[in-house]
TrEMBL record:
Name of this protein: Uncharacterized protein
Organism: Mytilus coruscus
Length: 157
């Protein structure tokens, strides 16, 4: 491929971050479309994308038997709609509610997790603390508080 002038990149582990960051880098100089199947890619694009870039589109290109249309995400418009705060914490919300590398907790859906983020300041504050934690104890405390909140526990319970 290199001999044909096609740029290639190699990921040592999970390629999702490399794929998303490469698409974002491309969108800085030209409109870019990323074709992929993975929700993790969508989350990473929304988390890392710069809203001042050129058009950045994410699509699967596949039509299922259930959904008869192709899903097309305009990343920059979606990021503006969701807001910077949610997009910053989206990887945490996605991971804690189940993704490629973590199982969903019993009885906790993505929708419920997003709803909790939108409606409960304590959950949002703990998510921000977890994202910015500097010590092991801070990480454990914020993580415990988030999980307790997802199961409707009282703050600091």
């Amino acid at each position: 491929m290199v001999e044909k002038g096609i740029e290639t990149k190699h990921a040592d582990a999970d390629a999702d971050v490399l794929i998303a960051l490469t698409a974002i880098e491309s969108s800085k100089t030209k409109p870019t479309v990323l074709l992929g199947e993975d929700t993790d890619l969508l989350v990473l694009l929304l988390h890392h994308a710069d809203v001042t870039s050129n058009s950045l589109i994410f699509t699967s290109g596949n039509v299922s038997k259930v959904n008869t249309h192709i899903k097309i995400w305009d990343i920059l418009k979606t990021k503006l709609l969701l807001g910077e705060e949610l997009c910053t914490l989206l990887p945490l919300i996605h991971a804690i509610s189940g993704c490629d590398t973590t199982s969903r907790m019993f009885g906790v859906s993505k929708a419920a997790t997003l709803k909790k983020f939108g409606e409960h300041d304590f959950f949002k504050t703990q998510a921000q603390l977890l994202s910015n934690a500097n010590t092991k104890d801070d990480i454990i405390s914020a993580g415990e508080n988030i999980i307790s909140s997802l199961y409707n526990g009282a703050p600091y319970e």
